[in-house]
Amino acid sequence: MEEILEILESNNKITEEQIATMVNKSVEEVRDAIKKYEEDNVILGYISLINWEKTTKESVTALIEVKVTPQRGEGFDKVAERIYRYPEVKACYLMSGGFDLTVIVEGKTMKEVALFVAEKLSPLESVLSTSTHFVLKKYKDKGTIFEKKQKDDREAVVL
Amino acid sequence: MNISEMILPSVRQVPPSGIRKFFDLVNEMKDAISLSIGEPDFVTPWNIREAGIYSLEKGYTHYSPNAGFIELREEICKFQERKYNLKYDPKNQVIVTVGGSEGIDIALRSLVGPGDEVIIPEPSFVAYKPCAIFAGATPVIINLSAESEFRLTPELLEKAITDKTKVLILPYPNNPTGAVMEKKDLEGIVEVLKDRDIIVISDEIYSELTYEGKHISIASFPEMKEKTLVINGFSKAYAMTGWRLGYCLGHPDLISAMYKIHQYAIMCSPTTAQYAAIEALRNSDDDVETMMREYNRRRRIMVEGYRSAGLDCFEPLGAFYVFPCIKSTGMTSYEFSERLLMEEKVAVVPGTAFGECGEGYIRSCYASSMDNIVEAMKRIKRFVEKNKK
């Protein structure tokens, strides 16, 4: 049944009927499986991947390397939670290597993001240091290439 | 001088592809959804492309050995053993060709000439019959039917064999029907052939694309090993059609005969493609698996689509084609395909392109994006309902 997840991950607009045909199961079985995945937080949501650069909306993304002090008994989880609760934070990962947390922040302008770092993130007690990198251009995200050729330009040949 | 009279009768005899006109029409209609193209829509996996690019950067731009790089032949043998339990010696039982197509041509040219008969089950790939004719031989067609799911039966084969029969073409998994031959089907064929002096050219180019159960080669039957020439290649499994690379496996005497023609006509297969193919065989099983799973989903959507449109459609278990029956619409294959293109802008191929017995069927290829397939099936349903007799 995990094939259902693969299918949904690549296209969540697909209908339950279509999934059922694809995996050779009944619609009920597929519906039940999806419901269970949702209840178990395996399927966390159904979101769309949008290239905001093609719209009029102003948007900047920054990747922030954060060094923190882990807390006794809580490890990094508590600090991470303090950070990821901000709606500006779109992603937050615990890392191995030279720093502890990767925080992806989105804002309307660079100034907005900079203010977030200066006023919200850095002052947190456990945060030792931050290093902010702005994204200049997105080439690929979630396995999807942004400027890819959409047209099927194969010629019909005799075979 | 009348040039056309200078052309060999055997070449003149082969009509220009009847389907060409239809394909010209398809190519003109830029906004049509095409289910007519018999090649993967996927681009060659990046690691394979990269290996080709790297070979160019290193300056590997020269001829390869005539039979192909030994490294590649070794990988081919390992692959065939791992996948289909076929054992061949990379030194004298493998030849790397320019696509499976060259293999078909040089095999037939090595084996048959005037007075010899080549048995070809149809519907099948368009090249077998012309290649037999160009070699001077006589094609003997077996008309397969949907009742036997387009599998070759021992009875039909027995009937087609004469004392002139020298070669049987065994094209499974099949283009255009999607039919496969399972073990029990092959057993019947082996029974007919085991005591006869007939070479089997087993075209297994779609061997990696089977959906319920694994492909079995007729060469895996010990009594058939010597008299089978296996043709395979990289086009379908690895989405490498444009690289033009295939190979043949068989008895050393047959391979060395084919080698002669190959070395004088072709020299060697493209070097860049060979480097890419080595990478394909070594590190791309996962990519093949991923593409295969996606094809399988599309296959089910397409079969379901035709059936819900009210057309009979047997379940194809291999390749990437569905071969539904359109007789219930009262149209011929050509009419159906042409009107579907004009009225709904969906391109399929008339079954007659693959043999006369393809009349009443269309070939519909699911090597196209899922979105395209879903939309095309909607249009086909509308078209069939409008024209239902």
Automatic annotation (TrEMBL), chain A:
Gene3D superfamilies found in the cross-reference section: 3.30.70.920, Winged helix-like DNA-binding domain superfamily/Winged helix DNA-binding domain
Coiled-coil spans in chain: 5-40
Keyword Glycoprotein: no
A Pfam family assignment: HTH_24
Residue ranges of every copy of the Transcription regulator AsnC/Lrp ligand binding domain listed in the record: 64-137
InterPro entries to which the protein is assigned, alphabetical: Dimeric_a/b-barrel, HTH-Siroheme_Decarb, Tscrpt_reg_AsnC-like, Tscrpt_reg_AsnC/Lrp_C, WH-like_DNA-bd_sf, WH_DNA-bd_sf
Membrane-spanning intervals of the chain: none
Keywords assigned by UniProt, alphabetized: Coiled coil
Protein name in the entry: Lrp/AsnC family transcriptional regulator
From TrEMBL, chain B:
The UniProt record lists the keyword Transferase: yes
Enzyme Commission number(s) of this protein: 2.6.1.-
Required cofactor(s): pyridoxal 5'-phosphate
InterPro entries found in the cross-reference section: Aminotransferase_I/II_large, AspAT/PAT-like, NHTrfase_class1_PyrdxlP-BS, PyrdxlP-dep_Trfase, PyrdxlP-dep_Trfase_major, PyrdxlP-dep_Trfase_small
Pfam families: Aminotran_1_2 (PF00155)
GO biological process, one term: amino acid metabolic process
Keyword flag Iron-sulfur: no
Domain of life: Bacteria
Matches recorded under SUPFAM superfamilies: PLP-dependent transferases (SSF53383)
Domain Aminotransferase class I/classII large: 31-380
Keywords: Aminotransferase, Pyridoxal phosphate, Transferase
GO molecular function: pyridoxal phosphate binding; transaminase activity
Segments traversing the membrane: none
Stated family: Belongs to the class-I pyridoxal-phosphate-dependent aminotransferase family.
Name of the featured protein: Aminotransferase
